[in-house]
């Protein structure tokens, strides 16, 4: 059996995913063997991210996918320079954000945040300060980037921003407190806040998870437009394979803190070079049958960083594992423009 | 990482005394307390409205008269006790409120820095506060008041500084809870400076328990100030003051019980009333 078979339903928008390659794209995020470890009170070092390597260039959307606990959010927060604040966290390897080395000097991110670098968090309700109005918080972000302007100018700019994320009565929302808004509204306010600083690199940690599908489509369209018009680079952390299929220029699959596959979405959905990716895609429920078949799942769960299996971390859950998989860790190897970390990638894709 | 639990607020007087606990949450009682405090405020702002007499007027012919002469009777100098109590309100409330504000501002600032910085700063501040808290508040206040000399200003300083560790503790715990909240990280991801995050986001979110503690503490400060004044560390003699009435009446307790009783009663009622209002505020703010 080949692991390359795609799921029965093809994600709808494969055609939309191919974008014209501009030759002058600047690399805004470059991870090369980045490692993040957490020191437990007992003194053990737990690897949360292991040798992550991928790049995001301007005008490019890279989707980071994987199960909960695979290290996606830690990767995103490390790029922002936020994990480094915790003395128990240590970052190694190489990581460059907008040309600055953030491993040797994490403090450079402080100057970038809110200007060239912005982030949208996954929990909208708790990401806004409960005692400030939405307007106050958005104004803070706007001023950080553009400096102080007249109150009227600021308010109309903010109302415009809110309109862009689908909030029609923006001027009223500016005077509300976060608890008066729904989760979806808060999430859109958060996105507006990130966009207020017109970042060159946007880190979005599941930005549309709390939103209903129509708003989700609207937000993703906006992100897509900013990518095309402003050459904004986006690192999009998501669970949603359909989102990845629709927007991404490249999809990076993470498992147990490691990048296991990295490919353009068309190629990835057509043929997977890692059994974990195939497993993930097979878990999307088909929409064609009248009565859905039994949901496919990958047996087991993501291993805890305290008890990682030897060799390839996925081998205990992998239907194709052989003795070699339990012995040695597979490198993230090049397979003609895409990468996979599986010993049997060549063999199984045939 | 640091421990992130809120320390329980020190229970107010009304919460500690079993009989008084039943009064809490009873809206009628809260109203009575509110009316009492309003009366006190009126007495503090315009004492002449409630007692037009001069509180310092000595009447040698009317020494140690029991209640009935005037309202509350007279003291050993023939001063009218009612007038004296009304005119003494200003000094009591002034000291109570000012010293609480002083303790709250200084304590919160210390707690804010210690809680946000964490690490060795927090450790150092924590140990220093431990040392201060090892002494009872009255002793710290007595020490400060005695070394500065008797005056209203020094009384405020003494009582205020004695309250600093309590406020610092509560503020620190609250800041530690707030600083780990996601919106603080979101503010950081917006690139705001540590000072801005502290001032605009952490402080306003940490204030509710500190303010409640402050209202409850006004009563305690009044008692503390009256105690120091009783010991002779209060305002100058010409200024009418509750603690002073208590101390001047003390030698006559056997023959003229009303002097100390009235002064003590007014003091007790005031503390209970403020404490009940503080409790009601706590229930409203849900802290």
TrEMBL record, chain B:
InterPro entries per UniProt: BP-dependent_transpt_permease, MetI-like, MetI-like_sf
Membrane-spanning intervals of the chain: 29-50, 92-116, 128-148, 154-171, 206-234, 254-277
CDD domains: TM_PBP2 (cd06261)
Domain ABC transmembrane type-1: start-end pairs: 89-278
Primary site of residence: membrane
Name of the protein: ABC transporter permease subunit
Keywords in alphabetical order: Cell membrane, Membrane, Transmembrane, Transmembrane helix, Transport
One GO location term (cellular component): plasma membrane
Subcellular location: Cell membrane
UniProt record, GO biological process: transmembrane transport
Topology class, membrane: Multi-pass membrane protein
Superkingdom classification of source: Bacteria
